[in-house]
Each structure stands twice: as C-alpha cells, then as structure tokens.
Amino acid sequence: MVVVVDMSEPQGDSRRLPRVVLVLLLLVTAAAPFAGSGPVVFALTALSLGYAALSGPIVRPHWTLVAFLLWTALTVAWSVLPSETLRGVLVTAGSALAVGSLVRQLGRSGVYRALTTTSKILVVASWALYLAWPVAGREQGAYHNGAFTGVFVQRNVAAFVLAIAVLTFTYLAVAREPGHRRASSCAWAGIAGFTLLVTESGTGIAVTAVCLAVLLVLSGARILTRSVKGALLWLVAAGVAGLAVVAQSGVDLVSSILGRDSTLTGRTVIWAAIDPYVAARPWRGYGWAALWTEDAITTRAMWAVARFRFEHAHNAYLDVRAQAGVVGLALICLFCARVVAVALRRLVSSRDSLPVIWPLCVVLLLLLYGISEQSFTSYFGWLVLVLAGALVGTTGEAAPVGAAPSSDAAAAADDPAGAPRSGAATDEACQPRRRPVGASARSRRARGDGRCDPPHGAPGAVN
Q: What is the tally of helices (H) and strands (E) in the chain?
C-alpha cells in the first residue's frame, strides 16, 4: 500500500493552537501603536515565548540574529532610558525566539495560513470601521483628510500592513501552496491592493508595485537556465539598487512622483533634527527602544528642533542608528543580507526555488520601505523580518509539537542554502547514473539506475 503524506501542511488539530498564537501576535503588533499597546505587546510576547518553550524546545536563531540581539542588550549599559531599553530588548528577543519556534511547529504552509488569516481579519475589520464609523476609520488631519485608516492609527501604518498582505496573497496565487486556493488568493490580493490605494500612501503604493514586479519576474524565471537566471537576477538587483539610490538622494524627484511637498510631508525636517544627535553617538546610539517617548530628554530636544512631535524617525536606517548606532545597523543589515544571499543562491542553483521568493521579496519590501518609514523597526515589521529569516532556511516540513529539533533541522538552519543534509535527495544524488556499457534496461531497473528512490519513511516512499 502506498501512503503519501504532505508534510508541508500539518495534519489534524495539533497545529491549531500555535497558529492561533502566531495570528494573535501578528494582529496585535500590526494594529500597534494604540492606547496601551506597549504593555499588551510585552505580555503577548511573554505568553508566546512561554507557549513556544512548553510546546517544544526553543529553536536556535541564526548567528547573525543572535549578534544583533546581543548588541541591543548591551545598549542597556549606556541607554538614556535603561528601563525602556530593557523592555524593548525583551520584546525584540522574545518575539524573535517565539516566532522561530512557531515557524518550526507550523511549517511553511501553516505560517502562510497565519499570515493570510491576520490579513483578512485586519482588512475586514478596517472596512467595517471605515464604513460604519467614519470618524475613527478615516484620516482626520489636514493632510489627506478622509483617507483610509481602518483599525490603524494612521494611513501609513495601514499601508505598510496592506503592502505585506498584497505581497503574501500574490505569492500564494503564484506558488499554489498547500491549503491555499489560487482563486481565493487572487481575490484577496485584489481586495488588499484596492484597500492600499484607498490609503493614498505614495510610499506604500510605489514600494508594493516594485516588489510585485520583482516577485512576478522571479516566479517566471524558475524555468530558465542557471546562467540566464543569474544574469536576470543581476539585472533586477541593479534596477532595485538604482531605485533605492534615487529614493534616498533625489528628494525633489521623489516628492514630485509621490505628490508630496519638498519636505516629503515633514520627513526631511525630522531627519535634520535627528542627524546632529546621531552624529554625537555614532557607534553606540542612545539605547534600543529608548527614544520616541517624552520621558527621554534627547527626544524632547529633537522635538524642539523640529517644532513638532514625531513618533519615530521616518527612516528605519536612521532609527536604528539613533537607537543602536552604526554597529546595530550593520548587524541588522547583515541579517537581512544573509536572508537575501540564501534566497538568491537557491534561486540560481535549485530547481525548487519558489519557496524562497516570498522571504526574498518581503525583505526587499522592508528594505525599500525603510527609506521613509519605520519598516523593520516597528513591532510588526520586526516579526515579518524574523519570519522571512526563518522561512528562507526551512524545508517546509512541520515538526511534531513538543519534539526536539532533529539533526536535519539543525543542519538546515546552519546550512546557507537552507537544505537538509540527510533524509532527502540532493540535486547531485538525483542525477541519473551513467549507464554501464552493455547494460540492459531490465538490469538498470533492477539496480534502480536512472532514478532517485525516496528514503525509508519519506513522503512518497513505499514502506
């Protein structure tokens, strides 16, 4: 009897609870900031980490992520608000450890189900609030008055979450992951995309368009030869890098394209107010999560220079430099570079490269978004970045709840290509064996020449 088990989607209800935990974590962080969001996020992070520890051993993060977390912990020593930095470090590290363990329990398809569930809830709730209670669901300021905000505090926050939703639904429509219908994914991608347009966020619309184009190009490039794929990736990388340079330096051009004033709606004023303080502490920063509160004297001084309050630096790179210095920025960029490098390697060398397209494109979205928004320095952006890092190195299989990490899983986490070192055939092992001179077809079938037999106990094996 032949039994085929799809290990990419967990069986039964054993994965329902970890999926609920991940959905709650994503929902709360996506909707933040809101009144009391700090304590709520801290408590939910503690509960998620506790559940991950009780349901199975905590998965060891990649060393690049560990290095960044350790550096943020060191900033407590010189933080302008040590208590806030300590709380920020606990949330950052705890959420990273919890998400890494939840990814292992859920598998790739389970993670995407949690992401789509989160996106659907937020989109439906936002439209309900927008239509039923316009004062709460629409922008009330002088700038872009009436623009869509939904359940979010501001339209740019809504646009950031919606951009990731559009990218996720589009990927699922292309990849056809188990448990996700293509028609449904296409429909939700359209709904999320329309909602993004209603937010009137120029940054969100522009970055999403670029990342969608990259996603579709990479999806179609899978059928090309290795050399052609390599050339195409270089071309895409050059185009994206050029756009990033223009966005970073050509303020006048960007403002005209996005329909904003010469200050990018106050962003250049914010950057000018922050720059002198960053230059005063270039390497160490002022402490992770210690700024952007009225309790910090440094922040109040920045507000005085800008002559208005701002809740973050409106530039993720500048934000990290202000909080953790150049060292912190280099470490988090190293983690992002590792995700991109692993994804690109698999895109060029592996025939099964589709699973790494979402992590690659979502990291690209975070990096581009970081030019003018919080991006990966927000609660939600940080979780998405950690998810991308965990998914790029996973085989897609869900581990049993409570099971210790196997040697294959550990090897996959350490392997730059993210592939298991045993229990599955590699491309080299699956190459047809050279036919011996004079060998008949029957003798080859008897030896198994020309095919790759699945190992005992593997999906598709006859046991």
A: 17, 0
d(CA 311, CA 463): 60
- Beta-carbon contacts of 325 under 8 Å, excluding residues fewer than 6 positions away, are 75, 281, 282, 283, 284, 285
Distance CA 150, CA 441 (A): 66
For the segment 177-187, what is each residue's pLDDT rounded down to a tens digit?
777 889 999 99
Residue that is written with structure tokens 């992590």 in the block? 359
Cβ atoms 37, 28 nearer than 8 A: yes
pLDDT in tens, 201-226: 988 999 999 999 999 988 877 666 66
- Using DSSP, state whether 148 is helix, strand or coil: strand
Residue 274 near residue 322 (C-beta atoms within 8 A): yes
160 touches 375 (CB < 8 A)? yes
Could you state, in order of their start, the residue ranges of all structural domains in the chain? 16-395
Q: Given pLDDT bands bounded at 50, 70 and 90, which one contains residue 14?
A: low
Higher pLDDT, 146 or 381: 381
Instruction: Determine the Cα–Cα distance for residues 384 and 363; give it in Å rounded to an integer.
Output: 8
Structure tokens at 377: 């320095």
How far apart CA 59 and CA 23 sit, in angstroms, is 19
Peptide bond just before 33 cis, omega within 30 deg:
yes
Reported pTM: 0.81
What is the C-alpha to C-alpha distance for residues 382 and 437, in angstroms, rounded to an integer? Answer: 58
Name 222's Cβ contacts closer than 8 Å, sequence gap at least 6: 229, 347, 351, 353, 354
Task: Answer yes or no: is pLDDT of 261 > 70.
Answer: no
